[in-house]
Every structure is written in C-alpha cells, then in structure tokens.
Amino acid sequence: IQMTQSPSSVSASVGDTVTIHCRANQTINYALNWYQQRPREAPKLLVYAATTLQRGVPSRFSGDGSGTVFTLIISSLQPEDFATYYCQQTFGPPPYTFGQGTKVDI
Amino acid sequence: QVQLVQSGAEVRKPGASVKVSCKASGYTFTSYDINWVRQATGQGLEWMGWMNPNSGNTGYAQKFQGRVTMTRDTSVSTAYMELSSLRSDDTAVYYCARGRGSRSFDYWGQGTLVTVSS
User: Fold this and answer.
1) Residue of B nearest to A103 (CA)
2) What is the C-alpha to C-alpha distance for residues B75 and A40, in angstroms, rounded to an integer?
3) Which of B47, B100, B110 sits opposite A95 (nearest CB)?
4) To the nearest whole angstrom, how far is the Cα of A45 from the nearest Cα of chain B?
5) Cβ of B32 under 8 Å from any chain A Cβ?
6) Is the pLDDT of residue A96 over 90?
7) b vs e for A76-100, b when ≥16 Cβ sit within 10 Å of the residue's Cβ?
8) Contact status of B41 with chain A (Cβ, < 8 Å)
9) What is the pLDDT of residues A3-36, one digit of tens each?
C-alpha cells in the first residue's frame, strides 16, 4: 500500500491552522497513524486509528478521514509544532508503510 | 515509565553485518510487538519489520528479506536487529518502536546511527 502526503512542505506562522493530507492507493479503513518528528529526535505518536488522539498530545492536533483520504489538522500552531509529520498505514498484513513526510516550518 | 534504550553508534565496512539492540523497560516485554524503522539522513521513515517477543514470530519488508534477522532475549527484555551484507545506502538511523494492538507505534528508542563506509 502506497501512502502519499501533501504538501511536502508548508510555511506557517505561530497561531496559524495547518492541514496535512495523506492518501492511500487502496482502502485502509481507519488504520492510519500520524507521527511528529522534530530534528534529531525519534518520531512521536500523535494520532492513531485515524482520529484518536494519543494520551498527552495537545487537543490542537486532530485527525480525520477513513478509507483512502485522511487529514491531520494543527490548530493555533505553536513554536514546538514546527517539525516533520508522517502518516503511516497499518491495514492488514505488513508492510506498514509511511508517507514521505510533510515539513512544517516558519 | 516505558523506555526503549538502543545500543550505540556503529561503523561497518561494506559487506559486513551489524547487530543493534533495543532494551525495554517499564512494561511486560512479551506483551507488545517490536518494530524496526530506519531513516537515512534527510530522508523519510522506512519500516523494516516486526517481531513478537512472546513467540519470536517475525515479519520483514520484502526489501530486506534475506538480509535482516530480528531476535529477542526475553531474560533481559531485549530485542535485536541484525542486518547483513551492508551497503553504503544502509547508512541510516535505526529505530526500534513498540507496537500496540491498534498497530500504532507508541514508544520509540532513541535511534542508533549505523554508518557503512570503506
């Protein structure tokens, strides 16, 4: 299963709302996770099962979608949110492929 | 608290093998899968495979079949990933990550840089 993210990068300001898109080339129901990766850090789980916020993740992050089209929305962007975001599908048997990433910068 | 602590950076010559360890603490090691993900410098995340620490069952991405072996030692709550026949394009940071029933990766190791260079 191939995952395609858009845009590949986005420039934004503190307080903005950013929307990141992820598309699968076949239906994956709700088997979609979102991760945040800051420079020189390991990825961090933000959203799992397409819409469920991981414990401890701020509520300004939200996930939506099902089937083949998914979005991650970051409301009221904070300085610590400037990072790269990856979607990942975990539908059916492996491999559990990632999107190519979306870099959010200032 | 849940922690995955990986072994230190490695340098290998082309054709050699490398074995990276991932020591788990703060939870029951045999209750969650361990996945391995790698990231070349400036590139995205690439899933390599998974292992069930309870059964030892594994599944590998087709790209790595025949070159990767994932094992574990339950007595020390440690998972291992060995990659053989190394090439320069295997230079990357290798991460272990805990897989939950939801198939999301909720805890990650700090990463291990493997450099392949003659």
Assistant:
1) B44
2) 31
3) B47
4) 6
5) no
6) yes
7) ebeeebbbbbbbbbbbeebbbbbbb
8) no
9) 999 999 999 999 999 999 999 999 999 999 999 9
Per-residue pLDDT at B102: 67
Residue in A44, A57, A96, A103 to test binding to B, most B beta-carbons within 10 Å:
A96
Query: Nearest to residue B34, comparing CAs of B75, B77, B66, B84?
Result: B77
Cα B37 from Cα B45, distance rounded (Å): 6
**pLDDT < 70 positions in chain B:** 102
DSSP conformational letter for A8: S
- Of the candidates A90, A81, A41, which has an alpha carbon nearest to the alpha carbon of residue A57? A81
d(CA A8, CA A36): 14
Q: CA of A35: which chain B residue's CA is closest?
A: B105
Q: Which residues of chain B make contact with A99, given a CB cutoff of 8 A?
A: 44
d(CA B95, CA B22): 9
Angle at Cα A71 formed by Cα A70 and Cα A74, nearest 5°? 160
Residue A105 Cα distances to A72, A78, A81, B41, angstroms:
16, 11, 9, 18
- Specify the residue for token string 């990231």: B39
Instruction: Name the interface residues of A facing B (CB cutoff 8 Å).
Output: 31, 33, 35, 37, 42-45, 48-49, 52, 54, 86, 88, 90, 93-101
**Contact B51/B57 with Cβ under 8 angstroms?**
yes
